[in-house]
Amino acid sequence: MIKIAPSILAADFSCLGEEVRRIEAAGAEYVHLDVMDGSFVPEITLGASVVKRLRPTSKAVFDVHLMVEHPEQQIDSFAKAGADIITFHAEAAVHAHRIVQDIRAHGCKPGLALNPGTPLAMAEELLGDLDMVLLMTVNPGYGGQKFIPSMLRKIKRLRQLLQENDITADIEVDGGINADTAPQVIAAGANVLVAGSAVYGAKNIGQAIQTLRG
Ligand code: DX5
Ligand code: ZN
Which ligand is nearest to the CA of 9? Predict the structure, then answer.
């Protein structure tokens, strides 16, 4: 079962509530919320107060992607704001296992994100504790970048690792996912697809979501 997570980074920020309602009505399972701090990545996007305001507009799963330094300091506020899944970057975490436990203690599902250049080994010891591994298929920081094809092998290796160890964690991919790359990442083993420009840039977003699903 493939889930589609449109990234509101590509939405019209002047009417975010309406933009969230549109994708839910068009059949998206998740709303992907990209949190950037101007330090882990150059841009600054949105914080927990925005997520809190958006929460009543949608019943979809709120999939918060923290691209921030010191993710441990953000768990409480995003959980209270209504996040369902909280994903943080392995590269930004000193005590990743503790953060995973804290996310769960807050009643949310923990995800761990890896940049394209970060080996799978950074997630390996935690796989059994995670609900999701997010493999970045571009370098984080901006929407609308080109998919990095060598990530297909990484997705396959992670799927194999999960299967060998009987772990049911989701594999989410993020960056450059469109009608061309979606079938490739699905074939490699991804089951949650983030898409910013491919959804919000489409004339018919319902059709765009169906196309990504395959
Ligand atoms: C990039 C973000 C992505 C981004 C994806 O750092 O994490 O979620 O919005 O945008 P597209 O789908 O346009 O590559
Ligand atoms: Zn993202």
Answer: 1
Residues whose CB is less than 8 angstroms from the CB of residue 54 and which lie 6 or more positions away in sequence, other chains included? 16, 17, 20, 31, 33, 62
pTM of the predicted model as reported, rounded to 2 decimal places? 0.98
The set of catalytic residues is 34, 174
How do residues 65-120 score in pLDDT, each as one tens digit?
Answer: 999 999 999 999 999 999 999 999 999 999 999 999 999 999 999 999 999 999 99
Rounded to whole angstroms, how far apart are CA atoms 66 and 74? 9
Q: How far is the CA of 162 from the centre of ligand 1 (A)?
A: 25
Cα–Cα nearest to 109, from 168, 56, 50:
168
List strands edge to edge, sheet with 85-89. Answer: 3-6, 192-195, 170-174, 132-136, 109-114, 85-89, 61-67, 30-36
For the CA of 195, the nearest atom of ligand 1 = 12
CA of 136 to the centre of ligand 1 (A): 9
